[in-house]
Amino acid sequence: MRNVNFDTQLLRSFVTILETGSFVAAADKLNMTQPAISQQMRRLEELAGHGLFQREGRKFEVTQAGERLARLATQILALNDEIPEQLGVATKNVIHIGMPEYYSDSLLPTLLGEVHVRLPDVQLLVKIARSRILGEWLAEGRLDIALTMGESEPKSEIANQTIPIQWLAGSSFELERASGVIPLVMFKQPCVFRQIATERLDQAGMRWKCEHECEDLRTLRAALRANVGIAPVPFIQEYREIVAFDNHRVLPGLPDIMVRLRRNERFHSRDGDVLAQMILRLWAPPHEEALRA
């Protein structure tokens, strides 16, 4: 009888596909391309001698052979993952975390430093994206934990924080009242802050134009420092040469927005629990003095 050696990487990819529910999400979680993980599954089917998936359009179901292999693969991977611990080999527990770009200069450096000290066996894979995208990745299993901003309440959350949205401008910006048109610096759609700001201006009967459209926070800050216009930005930290444009006799006030620490419903980890508590502790609201600046 011929011996067949099943590569644990193939088995891990197979189990991850079943856990995340899609080839795309599994490839992202394993830091692979979709063609690569599809090729792995073809190789695994050759080794198993059976088809593992029944496809209907973009959706798939696991065959009976696939179900049997999934049970065996889970047992094999559990034994495999015990080997380093039994032999005293140091390993890293990878946690996928996402957050909006607004936190990349404030929370993220402090968090990475503390994880390095307090959770030396944890490796953080951080993704920076807009909240809508982070929410989709969380639901698809591409992320384990995510900070998201929004007005609507998600189904699951750990905690939330309310922060104000402010009109920001360059320190030497002057609004030309004679023109009667508000020059705005905004992110490309979809952007919750853009939507809120333009709705408030429309409700106030004020004319506005998008003077500059940005794809990232660095470009937005550069446009503000160049006095191109005014931007609606959540107040998380102060920026050099950028100040709050608080003259509400000219501009309508903006509401607060909720920021939430959310977890994938399938993500259960003791290190994840510690990480979540760490984020909540480090995630301090802005000082009251700064809010009045």
Task: Name the features.
D-Maltodextrin-Binding Protein, domain 2; Arc Repressor Mutant, subunit A; 41% helix; two-stranded antiparallel ribbon; 293 residues; 10 helices; elongated; seven-stranded mixed sheet; alpha/beta; 3 domains
Report on this structure.
With 293 residues, the chain is α/β, with parallel strands linked by helices. The protein folds into three domains: 8-87, Winged helix-like DNA-binding domain superfamily/Winged helix DNA-binding domain (Arc Repressor Mutant, subunit A); 93-159 and 258-291, 3-Layer(aba) Sandwich (D-Maltodextrin-Binding Protein, domain 2), CATH 3.40.190; 163-257, D-Maltodextrin-Binding Protein, domain 2. The chain has helices at 8-20, 23-29, 34-48, 64-87, 107-118, 131-140, 192-203, 217-225, 270-282, 288-291, and strands at 53-56, 59-62, 93-99, 122-128, 145-150, 159-170, 181-187, 207-214, 231-234, 242-244, 256-263. The protein is elongated.
State the gist of this model.
The chain is α/β, with parallel strands linked by helices and 293 residues long. 41% of the residues lie in helices and 24% in strands.
Distance between the termini: 78 Å
Poorly predicted runs are 286-293
CATH superfamily of the largest domain: Periplasmic binding protein-like II
Provide the succession of SSEs.
Answer: HHHEEHEHEHEEEHEHEEEHH
Helix-strand layout with pairing:
Elements: H1 8-20, H2 23-29, H3 34-48, E1 53-56, E2 59-62, H4 64-87, E3 93-99, H5 107-118, E4 122-128, H6 131-140, E5 145-150, E6 159-170, E7 181-187, H7 192-203, E8 207-214, H8 217-225, E9 231-234, E10 242-244, E11 256-263, H9 270-282, H10 288-291
Parallel strand pairs: 3-4, 3-5, 7-8
Antiparallel strand pairs: 1-2, 5-11, 6-9, 6-10, 6-11
